[in-house]
Amino acid sequence: LAFICVSYILIFINYKKIISNYKPYLFLLAGWGSILSVWFLVRRSVLHTFLANADIQAISSIMKNSPALIPAIGKIILPIRLSVFPILKDMTMIYGIIALTILFLWFIFSKNKNYRLILFGVSWFGLFIFLTLIKPESTTPEFSENRIYIPMFGFIFLLSGFGKISFWDKIKKKIDPEFSKKIIIALGIIIIIIFSSITMFRNRHYRNRVSFWRNAVETSPSSPFNHMNLGAMYYMDGNSDEAEKEFEKALEINSQEPMARNNLGLIYMNRNEFQKAEEEYDKELLLNPGYFVTYGNKAILYERMGRIDDSLDAWRKALEINPGYSKALRNLFIYYHKKQDKEEAIRWAKESEIRGIPLLPEMQKLLNSSAF
After folding, report:
1. β-sheet bridge partners, residue 142
2. Domain assignments of the chain as residue spans, ordered by start
3. pTM to 2 decimals?
4. Please, is 356 exposed, middle or buried when counting C-beta atoms within 10 Å of its C-beta (0-12, 13-18, 19+)?
Protein backbone atom coordinates (compact mmCIF):
# COMPACT_ATOMS: atom_id res chain seq x y z
CA LEU A 1 0.00 0.00 0.00
CA ALA A 2 2.91 2.34 0.75
CA PHE A 3 4.22 1.80 -2.78
CA ILE A 4 0.80 2.73 -4.20
CA CYS A 5 0.80 5.93 -2.12
CA VAL A 6 4.31 6.79 -3.31
CA SER A 7 3.25 6.13 -6.91
CA TYR A 8 0.27 8.46 -6.48
CA ILE A 9 2.43 11.25 -5.03
CA LEU A 10 5.10 10.96 -7.71
CA ILE A 11 2.60 10.76 -10.58
CA PHE A 12 -0.08 13.29 -9.61
CA ILE A 13 1.69 15.89 -7.47
CA ASN A 14 4.02 18.32 -9.19
CA TYR A 15 7.59 17.90 -7.99
CA LYS A 16 7.89 21.68 -7.47
CA LYS A 17 4.97 21.54 -5.05
CA ILE A 18 6.63 18.64 -3.20
CA ILE A 19 9.89 20.60 -2.89
CA SER A 20 8.19 23.82 -1.74
CA ASN A 21 6.08 22.01 0.87
CA TYR A 22 8.31 19.06 1.66
CA LYS A 23 7.62 18.58 5.40
CA PRO A 24 4.40 16.46 5.14
CA TYR A 25 6.05 14.23 2.55
CA LEU A 26 9.17 13.96 4.69
CA PHE A 27 7.07 12.70 7.61
CA LEU A 28 5.39 10.16 5.33
CA LEU A 29 8.74 9.01 3.98
CA ALA A 30 10.17 8.72 7.51
CA GLY A 31 7.17 6.66 8.66
CA TRP A 32 7.27 4.28 5.72
CA GLY A 33 11.06 4.04 5.95
CA SER A 34 10.89 3.20 9.67
CA ILE A 35 8.29 0.48 9.15
CA LEU A 36 10.30 -1.00 6.28
CA SER A 37 13.53 -0.89 8.30
CA VAL A 38 11.93 -2.67 11.27
CA TRP A 39 10.50 -5.29 8.94
CA PHE A 40 13.91 -5.91 7.35
CA LEU A 41 15.63 -6.11 10.76
CA VAL A 42 13.09 -8.61 12.15
CA ARG A 43 13.26 -10.59 8.93
CA ARG A 44 17.05 -10.68 8.97
CA SER A 45 17.12 -11.77 12.62
CA VAL A 46 14.96 -14.76 11.68
CA LEU A 47 16.60 -15.66 8.36
CA HIS A 48 20.16 -14.54 9.29
CA THR A 49 20.60 -13.17 5.78
CA PHE A 50 19.51 -10.13 3.78
CA LEU A 51 18.56 -12.10 0.68
CA ALA A 52 16.99 -15.46 1.51
CA ASN A 53 16.09 -18.39 -0.71
CA ALA A 54 12.46 -17.30 -0.41
CA ASP A 55 13.33 -14.00 -2.14
CA ILE A 56 15.06 -15.77 -5.00
CA GLN A 57 12.16 -18.23 -5.25
CA ALA A 58 9.67 -15.34 -5.28
CA ILE A 59 11.46 -13.70 -8.22
CA SER A 60 11.70 -17.07 -9.97
CA SER A 61 8.00 -17.72 -9.31
CA ILE A 62 6.97 -14.36 -10.80
CA MET A 63 9.00 -15.01 -13.94
CA LYS A 64 7.72 -18.57 -14.26
CA ASN A 65 4.06 -17.65 -13.73
CA SER A 66 4.04 -14.36 -15.68
CA PRO A 67 2.27 -15.95 -18.72
CA ALA A 68 -0.81 -16.16 -16.45
CA LEU A 69 -1.11 -12.37 -16.81
CA ILE A 70 -2.47 -12.75 -20.35
CA PRO A 71 -5.57 -14.83 -19.45
CA ALA A 72 -6.01 -12.72 -16.28
CA ILE A 73 -6.31 -9.56 -18.39
CA GLY A 74 -8.66 -11.46 -20.69
CA LYS A 75 -10.97 -12.28 -17.77
CA ILE A 76 -11.09 -8.63 -16.72
CA ILE A 77 -12.19 -7.44 -20.17
CA LEU A 78 -13.92 -10.60 -21.47
CA PRO A 79 -15.11 -12.79 -18.55
CA ILE A 80 -15.44 -15.96 -20.62
CA ARG A 81 -14.49 -19.52 -19.60
CA LEU A 82 -14.22 -18.68 -15.93
CA SER A 83 -12.86 -21.21 -13.46
CA VAL A 84 -12.67 -21.34 -9.67
CA PHE A 85 -9.21 -22.97 -9.39
CA PRO A 86 -7.48 -22.83 -12.79
CA ILE A 87 -3.87 -23.76 -13.45
CA LEU A 88 -1.81 -22.25 -16.25
CA LYS A 89 -1.95 -25.39 -18.39
CA ASP A 90 -5.75 -25.14 -18.65
CA MET A 91 -6.04 -21.37 -19.05
CA THR A 92 -7.05 -20.01 -22.46
CA MET A 93 -4.75 -17.36 -23.93
CA ILE A 94 -6.98 -16.27 -26.82
CA TYR A 95 -9.30 -14.03 -24.77
CA GLY A 96 -6.31 -12.33 -23.17
CA ILE A 97 -4.78 -11.66 -26.59
CA ILE A 98 -8.10 -10.23 -27.83
CA ALA A 99 -8.38 -8.03 -24.71
CA LEU A 100 -4.80 -6.74 -25.12
CA THR A 101 -5.50 -5.99 -28.80
CA ILE A 102 -8.63 -4.01 -27.83
CA LEU A 103 -6.66 -2.05 -25.23
CA PHE A 104 -3.84 -1.35 -27.69
CA LEU A 105 -6.23 -0.08 -30.38
CA TRP A 106 -8.13 2.00 -27.83
CA PHE A 107 -4.87 3.60 -26.71
CA ILE A 108 -3.75 4.30 -30.30
CA PHE A 109 -7.03 5.86 -31.43
CA SER A 110 -7.96 7.68 -28.21
CA LYS A 111 -7.55 11.42 -27.84
CA ASN A 112 -6.95 13.61 -24.79
CA LYS A 113 -5.09 10.83 -23.01
CA ASN A 114 -4.38 11.34 -19.33
CA TYR A 115 -0.92 9.79 -19.13
CA ARG A 116 -0.70 10.27 -15.38
CA LEU A 117 -3.89 8.33 -14.82
CA ILE A 118 -2.73 5.65 -17.26
CA LEU A 119 0.63 5.36 -15.48
CA PHE A 120 -1.08 5.15 -12.08
CA GLY A 121 -3.43 2.46 -13.40
CA VAL A 122 -0.50 0.43 -14.72
CA SER A 123 1.35 0.88 -11.39
CA TRP A 124 -1.68 -0.24 -9.38
CA PHE A 125 -2.32 -3.25 -11.60
CA GLY A 126 1.35 -4.25 -11.72
CA LEU A 127 2.03 -3.97 -7.98
CA PHE A 128 -0.99 -6.03 -6.96
CA ILE A 129 -1.02 -8.58 -9.80
CA PHE A 130 2.63 -9.55 -9.40
CA LEU A 131 1.97 -10.53 -5.78
CA THR A 132 -0.54 -13.12 -7.03
CA LEU A 133 2.16 -14.76 -9.15
CA ILE A 134 4.25 -15.75 -6.11
CA LYS A 135 3.44 -19.42 -5.51
CA PRO A 136 5.12 -22.20 -3.48
CA GLU A 137 7.39 -24.27 -5.70
CA SER A 138 6.23 -27.49 -4.03
CA THR A 139 2.68 -27.13 -5.38
CA THR A 140 0.98 -26.82 -8.76
CA PRO A 141 0.26 -23.06 -8.92
CA GLU A 142 -3.39 -22.07 -9.27
CA PHE A 143 -4.60 -18.64 -10.39
CA SER A 144 -7.95 -18.04 -8.71
CA GLU A 145 -10.05 -15.32 -10.29
CA ASN A 146 -10.73 -13.63 -6.96
CA ARG A 147 -7.02 -12.66 -6.93
CA ILE A 148 -7.61 -10.19 -9.79
CA TYR A 149 -10.34 -8.19 -8.02
CA ILE A 150 -7.97 -5.64 -6.44
CA PRO A 151 -5.65 -5.40 -9.50
CA MET A 152 -8.80 -4.78 -11.56
CA PHE A 153 -9.12 -1.30 -10.00
CA GLY A 154 -5.89 -0.47 -11.83
CA PHE A 155 -7.70 -1.20 -15.08
CA ILE A 156 -10.46 1.23 -14.13
CA PHE A 157 -7.85 3.98 -13.71
CA LEU A 158 -6.18 2.86 -16.94
CA LEU A 159 -9.36 2.98 -19.02
CA SER A 160 -10.33 6.32 -17.45
CA GLY A 161 -7.01 7.69 -18.67
CA PHE A 162 -7.54 6.51 -22.24
CA GLY A 163 -10.38 8.94 -22.90
CA LYS A 164 -12.63 8.91 -25.97
CA ILE A 165 -11.73 7.21 -29.23
CA SER A 166 -10.83 9.85 -31.83
CA PHE A 167 -13.21 8.69 -34.56
CA TRP A 168 -16.17 8.45 -32.15
CA ASP A 169 -16.90 12.20 -32.45
CA LYS A 170 -16.89 11.93 -36.26
CA ILE A 171 -19.45 9.13 -36.08
CA LYS A 172 -21.61 11.12 -33.63
CA LYS A 173 -21.68 14.11 -36.02
CA LYS A 174 -23.11 11.93 -38.77
CA ILE A 175 -25.77 10.43 -36.50
CA ASP A 176 -28.76 12.17 -35.00
CA PRO A 177 -27.98 13.01 -31.32
CA GLU A 178 -31.18 11.37 -30.08
CA PHE A 179 -30.48 8.23 -32.10
CA SER A 180 -26.88 8.23 -30.84
CA LYS A 181 -28.15 8.38 -27.27
CA LYS A 182 -30.48 5.43 -27.94
CA ILE A 183 -27.57 3.40 -29.38
CA ILE A 184 -25.48 4.05 -26.25
CA ILE A 185 -28.39 3.06 -23.97
CA ALA A 186 -29.07 -0.06 -26.05
CA LEU A 187 -25.40 -1.08 -25.94
CA GLY A 188 -25.36 -0.52 -22.18
CA ILE A 189 -28.46 -2.70 -21.72
CA ILE A 190 -26.97 -5.45 -23.93
CA ILE A 191 -23.73 -5.42 -21.90
CA ILE A 192 -25.70 -5.59 -18.62
CA ILE A 193 -27.80 -8.50 -19.94
CA ILE A 194 -24.69 -10.39 -21.12
CA PHE A 195 -22.83 -9.96 -17.83
CA SER A 196 -25.96 -10.73 -15.78
CA SER A 197 -26.49 -13.91 -17.81
CA ILE A 198 -22.88 -14.97 -17.19
CA THR A 199 -23.38 -14.37 -13.44
CA MET A 200 -26.65 -16.32 -13.33
CA PHE A 201 -25.09 -19.16 -15.30
CA ARG A 202 -22.11 -19.23 -12.94
CA ASN A 203 -24.33 -19.30 -9.83
CA ARG A 204 -25.36 -22.90 -10.52
CA HIS A 205 -21.79 -23.98 -9.78
CA TYR A 206 -22.14 -22.63 -6.22
CA ARG A 207 -25.25 -24.62 -5.25
CA ASN A 208 -23.29 -27.12 -3.18
CA ARG A 209 -19.75 -28.37 -2.57
CA VAL A 210 -19.92 -31.11 -5.22
CA SER A 211 -21.08 -28.79 -8.02
CA PHE A 212 -18.38 -26.27 -7.03
CA TRP A 213 -15.50 -28.76 -7.28
CA ARG A 214 -17.03 -30.53 -10.29
CA ASN A 215 -16.87 -27.20 -12.12
CA ALA A 216 -13.27 -26.79 -10.95
CA VAL A 217 -12.41 -30.16 -12.50
CA GLU A 218 -14.33 -29.46 -15.72
CA THR A 219 -12.65 -26.10 -16.30
CA SER A 220 -9.19 -27.13 -15.10
CA PRO A 221 -8.88 -30.92 -15.50
CA SER A 222 -5.06 -30.87 -15.27
CA SER A 223 -5.13 -29.78 -11.62
CA PRO A 224 -4.57 -32.68 -9.19
CA PHE A 225 -5.77 -30.41 -6.37
CA ASN A 226 -9.18 -30.05 -8.04
CA HIS A 227 -9.57 -33.81 -8.50
CA MET A 228 -8.49 -34.43 -4.91
CA ASN A 229 -11.06 -31.98 -3.53
CA LEU A 230 -13.86 -33.28 -5.74
CA GLY A 231 -13.02 -36.76 -4.47
CA ALA A 232 -13.19 -35.49 -0.88
CA MET A 233 -16.64 -34.01 -1.54
CA TYR A 234 -17.86 -37.30 -3.05
CA TYR A 235 -16.46 -39.18 -0.04
CA MET A 236 -18.25 -36.89 2.44
CA ASP A 237 -21.48 -37.46 0.50
CA GLY A 238 -21.01 -41.23 0.80
CA ASN A 239 -20.14 -41.77 -2.87
CA SER A 240 -16.96 -43.80 -2.35
CA ASP A 241 -16.75 -45.18 -5.90
CA GLU A 242 -16.65 -41.73 -7.50
CA ALA A 243 -14.33 -40.50 -4.76
CA GLU A 244 -11.89 -43.33 -5.49
CA LYS A 245 -11.83 -42.40 -9.20
CA GLU A 246 -11.01 -38.77 -8.41
CA PHE A 247 -8.25 -39.64 -5.92
CA GLU A 248 -6.68 -42.00 -8.45
CA LYS A 249 -6.93 -39.32 -11.15
CA ALA A 250 -5.19 -36.82 -8.84
CA LEU A 251 -2.36 -39.32 -8.28
CA GLU A 252 -2.19 -40.03 -12.01
CA ILE A 253 -1.48 -36.34 -12.60
CA ASN A 254 0.76 -35.92 -9.55
CA SER A 255 1.96 -39.06 -7.79
CA GLN A 256 2.92 -36.96 -4.75
CA GLU A 257 -0.40 -35.11 -4.31
CA PRO A 258 -0.83 -34.48 -0.55
CA MET A 259 -3.64 -36.36 1.24
CA ALA A 260 -4.76 -38.32 -1.85
CA ARG A 261 -3.26 -41.61 -0.61
CA ASN A 262 -4.58 -40.98 2.89
CA ASN A 263 -8.07 -40.58 1.44
CA LEU A 264 -7.73 -43.75 -0.63
CA GLY A 265 -6.71 -45.50 2.59
CA LEU A 266 -9.97 -44.36 4.20
CA ILE A 267 -11.99 -45.85 1.34
CA TYR A 268 -10.16 -49.19 1.52
CA MET A 269 -10.45 -49.26 5.32
CA ASN A 270 -14.22 -48.74 5.13
CA ARG A 271 -14.38 -51.64 2.64
CA ASN A 272 -12.42 -53.80 5.10
CA GLU A 273 -9.55 -54.02 2.60
CA PHE A 274 -7.12 -53.53 5.45
CA GLN A 275 -3.91 -54.50 3.66
CA LYS A 276 -4.53 -52.02 0.83
CA ALA A 277 -5.48 -49.32 3.34
CA GLU A 278 -2.25 -49.82 5.30
CA GLU A 279 -0.21 -49.61 2.09
CA GLU A 280 -1.84 -46.30 1.15
CA TYR A 281 -1.32 -44.84 4.63
CA ASP A 282 2.35 -45.85 4.56
CA LYS A 283 2.79 -44.24 1.13
CA GLU A 284 1.17 -41.04 2.41
CA LEU A 285 3.47 -40.90 5.43
CA LEU A 286 6.50 -41.54 3.24
CA LEU A 287 5.60 -38.42 1.23
CA ASN A 288 4.11 -36.41 4.08
CA PRO A 289 5.60 -37.60 7.41
CA GLY A 290 4.17 -34.66 9.34
CA TYR A 291 0.54 -35.42 8.48
CA PHE A 292 -0.68 -36.54 11.91
CA VAL A 293 -4.20 -37.35 10.65
CA THR A 294 -2.82 -40.33 8.73
CA TYR A 295 -1.30 -41.68 11.95
CA GLY A 296 -4.76 -41.32 13.49
CA ASN A 297 -6.29 -43.24 10.59
CA LYS A 298 -3.63 -45.94 10.96
CA ALA A 299 -4.51 -46.20 14.66
CA ILE A 300 -8.17 -46.83 13.79
CA LEU A 301 -7.11 -49.35 11.13
CA TYR A 302 -4.87 -51.26 13.56
CA GLU A 303 -7.67 -51.32 16.15
CA ARG A 304 -10.02 -52.90 13.61
CA MET A 305 -7.31 -55.42 12.72
CA GLY A 306 -6.88 -56.27 16.41
CA ARG A 307 -3.35 -54.84 16.54
CA ILE A 308 -3.94 -52.85 19.73
CA ASP A 309 -0.29 -52.11 20.56
CA ASP A 310 0.30 -50.77 17.05
CA SER A 311 -2.87 -48.68 17.37
CA LEU A 312 -1.66 -47.10 20.62
CA ASP A 313 1.76 -46.40 19.08
CA ALA A 314 0.09 -44.69 16.11
CA TRP A 315 -2.00 -42.47 18.41
CA ARG A 316 1.13 -41.52 20.37
CA LYS A 317 3.00 -40.78 17.13
CA ALA A 318 0.16 -38.49 16.05
CA LEU A 319 0.47 -36.64 19.38
CA GLU A 320 4.22 -36.23 18.92
CA ILE A 321 3.47 -34.27 15.76
CA ASN A 322 0.39 -32.46 17.10
CA PRO A 323 0.13 -32.50 20.93
CA GLY A 324 -3.34 -30.94 20.71
CA TYR A 325 -4.85 -33.66 18.51
CA SER A 326 -8.11 -34.20 20.41
CA LYS A 327 -9.02 -37.45 18.64
CA ALA A 328 -5.78 -39.10 19.78
CA LEU A 329 -6.10 -37.86 23.37
CA ARG A 330 -9.69 -39.06 23.66
CA ASN A 331 -8.99 -42.48 22.14
CA LEU A 332 -6.02 -43.07 24.43
CA PHE A 333 -8.19 -42.10 27.41
CA ILE A 334 -11.03 -44.38 26.29
CA TYR A 335 -8.66 -47.33 25.85
CA TYR A 336 -7.09 -47.02 29.31
CA HIS A 337 -10.43 -46.15 30.95
CA LYS A 338 -12.00 -49.36 29.58
CA LYS A 339 -8.90 -51.27 30.66
CA GLN A 340 -9.39 -49.75 34.14
CA ASP A 341 -5.85 -48.40 34.10
CA LYS A 342 -6.76 -45.40 36.24
CA GLU A 343 -3.29 -43.84 36.28
CA GLU A 344 -2.97 -43.75 32.47
CA ALA A 345 -6.60 -42.69 32.01
CA ILE A 346 -6.08 -39.73 34.39
CA ARG A 347 -2.89 -38.85 32.54
CA TRP A 348 -4.68 -38.49 29.19
CA ALA A 349 -7.66 -36.73 30.76
CA LYS A 350 -5.32 -34.16 32.36
CA GLU A 351 -3.44 -33.76 29.08
CA SER A 352 -6.75 -32.99 27.35
CA GLU A 353 -7.63 -30.44 30.05
CA ILE A 354 -4.22 -28.76 29.73
CA ARG A 355 -4.65 -28.54 25.95
CA GLY A 356 -8.05 -26.87 26.36
CA ILE A 357 -9.90 -29.73 24.69
CA PRO A 358 -13.56 -30.21 25.74
CA LEU A 359 -13.62 -33.13 28.17
CA LEU A 360 -15.77 -36.23 27.80
CA PRO A 361 -18.14 -36.76 30.77
CA GLU A 362 -16.04 -39.78 31.82
CA MET A 363 -12.90 -37.63 31.74
CA GLN A 364 -14.45 -34.95 33.94
CA LYS A 365 -15.83 -37.52 36.37
CA LEU A 366 -12.43 -39.22 36.69
CA LEU A 367 -10.60 -35.93 37.21
CA ASN A 368 -13.12 -34.86 39.87
CA SER A 369 -12.75 -38.15 41.74
CA SER A 370 -8.94 -38.01 41.56
CA ALA A 371 -8.92 -34.52 43.09
CA PHE A 372 -9.99 -35.88 46.51
Report:
1. 87
2. 2-190
3. 0.77
4. exposed
